[in-house]
Structures are given as structure tokens and as C-alpha cells.
Amino acid sequence: MRFSVAVIFLLSCFFFQACTGKRNNNSIDFSNPVKVVQVIFDAARNKDSSRLSLLCHSNGQYDGDVRDICEMNPKHKKWGQFLRWFAKGEVVGKPIIRKNHAQVKFMFGPLGKDREKMSLVQYDGKWYLSGY
Q: d(Cα 36, Cα 121) in Å, to the nearest integer?
């Protein structure tokens, strides 16, 4: 009986989400380019790639490095490299935003001392990775 109730409850939750049309974005704040970039570092620190694919827009307008990030998972051939380079990452300073483009400076690398800039583009009010 308990099993039946649990199954009905889980199915109800699934159908509610499907019927409302909400995509599970695991609480990514796409309105803020810094928070979008922060998802990469959190993923590497927690060894959890579940949100990375959400960081790329479906139109495919991003470079190969960003594609690797968005396709990253524990079975990816570059998984170890991803963890090594992004686990100590952190955003540095404030983003530079011009219209629908943004740049976020960050530190990353095995020691967290390598400088880089992530480019993002805004579609429909949401920021997505485009290159670095």
C-alpha cells in the first residue's frame, strides 16, 4: 500500500511539472551572467555535471570550448581535466555588459591562478555561455 501511494505521488509530481511546461533548471539564475559562470565552478567542485548542458543555448552559437563544458559529464574524455581546471575557479570583479553581450573575468586552473574571460550572450532575457 505504501509503495502504491509513493508511486502515485511521484507520478503526480512528474505530471504536474510536465503539464506546467517548466524545465528543471536546478535553480540557475539566468538573469545574471556571473551566476551562470559560477555554475561551472560549482559543477567541478561537486563533481556534478547535471546543470552544465543548460548553460548553452539550443541555437548552437558557442565555441568548441564552451561546447565541451556543456557536454561535460563523468564519462566525457576530458572529465578529469575539467575537474582539475575548474574546481578552483572563481569570478573576479564585475561583469562587463554591453547590450546582449557580457564578459565575466575569472581565475581557474590547477592552482586557481590562471586568468580568463567568459563571453556570454543574452537570449530572451537569459544569459548563456558563448566562448572563452
A: 11
- The alpha-carbon radius of gyration of the chain (Å, integer) is 17
Q: Domains along the chain?
A: 27-131 (3.10.450.50)
Report the alpha-carbon distance of residue 41 to residue 111 in Å, rounded.
14
- State the SS3 of 10-42: HHHHHHHHHHHCCCCCCCCCCCCHHHHHHHHHH
What does pTM read for this prediction? 0.80
Q: Reduce the DSSP state of residue 68 to 3 states and report it.
A: helix
C-alpha cell at 106: 575569472
What grid cell was written down for 88? 578552483
Measured between alpha carbons, how far is 23 from 32 in angstroms, rounded to an integer? Answer: 18
Higher per-residue pLDDT: 15 or 46: 46
pLDDT higher than 70, residue 118 = yes
Q: Whole-angstrom Cα distance, residue 127 to residue 100?
A: 8
**CA of 109: how far to CAs of 3, 83, 89, in Å?**
47, 9, 7
Are the C-beta atoms of 63 and 131 separated by less than 8 Å?
A: yes
